[in-house]
Amino acid sequence: MGTELLAPLDLAFWHLESDAHPMHLGALAVFAPAPGVTPPHVLELLRTRAAAIPRLRMCVRDVLLPVGGAAWTVDKDFDVHRHVRRVAVDEGDFMAGATRLAGELMEQPLGRGLPPWQMYLIGGADDGPFAVLVKLHHALADGMRAVAIGAGIFDEIAATTARSAARGRPAVPPRSWLPDPREVAGMALGRIGEVGRALGVGASVVRAGRLDLRSTAFTAPSSGTRRLATADLDATALQRIRRAEGGTANDILLAVVAGALRRWMAERGEAPAGADPRALVPVSRRRPGGAVSGNRLSAYLLDLPVGAADPRERLRAVRAAMDRNKAAGPLKGAGAVAVLADQLHPLAHRFGAPLAANAARMLFDLLVTSVPLPRSALSLGGCPLSALYPMAPLARGQSLAVALSTYGGRVHVGLVADGKALPDLDRLAGAVEEEFEGLRELVTGGRVPVPVS
């Protein structure tokens, strides 16, 4: 399978990591039991299917050229048992126990000398529900690529993967870093265009940077601990709200997050800050049918209207801001800071990562991201998938990341927080559900909500 240079943005994620700031994505997939399917059977199935995904056999090694670079290489000593393990949940409430345990497991950085991923089978009784926690380093996968890689464990996709492997064609082949000579001219022209865009983004970053860094619950020093909480929303109700109010489903969810933060801050006795918290909203630059390798990300910056008391006013503010972002495009504005990473030399990533990590707070306060999932029903060993909660990494100096995915008629929300800064994360998750329900009743039921002061 050879080697493959890490793309510039992948290299940036690799060097941004520290013990207190692990840079892995996560997902907690919850399955309903099926007759005759036992935990040992599921564990072996996970190991067999994970081992069949070529990308999961790759690890990162430094290279001589380019100076400061690194490459994906096949781990000749790959042992899937190092990566796929079983952990038990003792609590009577399975979801509460699985969520607590997943938060603890998300604290632990991935081993640097091994393929940077882990899977944990979380389960208790043989005839009860179980969960699979997947951890993938951000250098290995962005949200869409994580879905593509992780999908290989499901029954519906694994069969296709197995047939492809049997024909001798790996389902996820590594991309060679050596271009075809016929592509060189086109790449050069594209590179010139990208450098020009990067200069514009750089100027936007400087203008958007904030020197008056406020200390809030979700912008606190890191303790190295992680806590996970989940929320579930009705996807059908979401579409009803969208039809009634306009905008996109993502606009509505961003407005719900803003309202939930307002509710949560009020419960804590905190008045809304003078300036609304700023969210980084990632945007995929991956084209349909494009190459699997390499993170392809940009982002928008959005001031969450926490200061607005009326839910409809919050939604209008989000819609207007997102419309402006979309009109400018994902390659412009300070939120497109990832575009800069694609232009930097590997040495800049290797030695500049600490500076870049500390600068994150100057641009945004928290991350809110949506992860697309397949629309078809999924299962593992015949056990149907009932929910999948995505989890995003925390930037340095930040304490909260919110990720959302839609599956099976539900919007599943995964909230990841610094355990010391946000010990009441469960209340924020509850506020997400309450805010969504309040907006649903306001739009479809005619209720006039009492503003949260």
How is the secondary structure organized here?
Blueprint: E1 3-5, H1 8-16, E2 24-31, H2 39-51, E3 58-62, E4 70-74, E5 84-88, H3 94-107, E6 117-123, E7 130-137, H4 143-150, H5 155-166, H6 184-208, E8 227-234, H7 235-245, H8 249-267, E9 278-284, E10 297-303, H9 311-328, H10 337-341, H11 346-358, H12 360-363, E11 366-370, E12 379-380, E13 383-391, E14 400-407, E15 410-417, H13 425-445
Parallel strand pairs: 5-6, 9-11, 11-14
Antiparallel strand pairs: 1-4, 2-7, 2-13, 3-4, 6-7, 8-15, 9-10, 12-13, 14-15
Helix pairs in contact: 1-11, 7-13, 8-9, 8-13
What are its keywords?
alpha+beta, Chloramphenicol Acetyltransferase, 2 domains, 6-stranded mixed β-sheet, globular
Describe the structure.
Helices cover 38% and strands 21% of the residues. The chain contains 13 helices and 15 strands. Strand 3 and strand 4 form a beta hairpin.
Number of DSSP strand runs: 15
Helical segment count: 13
Euclidean distance between termini CA atoms: 59 Å
CATH fold name of the largest domain: Chloramphenicol Acetyltransferase
The CATH architecture term of the largest domain is: 2-Layer Sandwich
Quick one: overall form? globular
Largest sheet, order of strands side by side? 5-6-7-2-13-12
List the domain count as a whole number. Answer: 2
Strand-residue proportion: 15-25%
CATH class of the largest domain: Alpha Beta
CATH homologous superfamily caption of the largest domain: Nonribosomal peptide synthetase, condensation domain
Helix content: 25-40%
For the report, how would you describe the main beta sheet? 6 strands, mixed
Arithmetic mean pLDDT? 81
Uncertain regions spanning at least 5 consecutive residues: 165-197, 288-292
Q: What is the CA-based Rg, rounded?
A: 22 Å
Protein structure class: alpha+beta
- Name the helix and strand elements from N-terminus to C-terminus, one letter apiece: EHEHEEEHEEHHHEHHEEHHHHEEEEEH
Family: Belongs to the long-chain O-acyltransferase family.
Domain O-acyltransferase WSD1-like N-terminal: 6-252
GO biological process, one term: response to nitric oxide
Pathway: Lipid metabolism; Glycerolipid metabolism; triacylglycerol biosynthesis
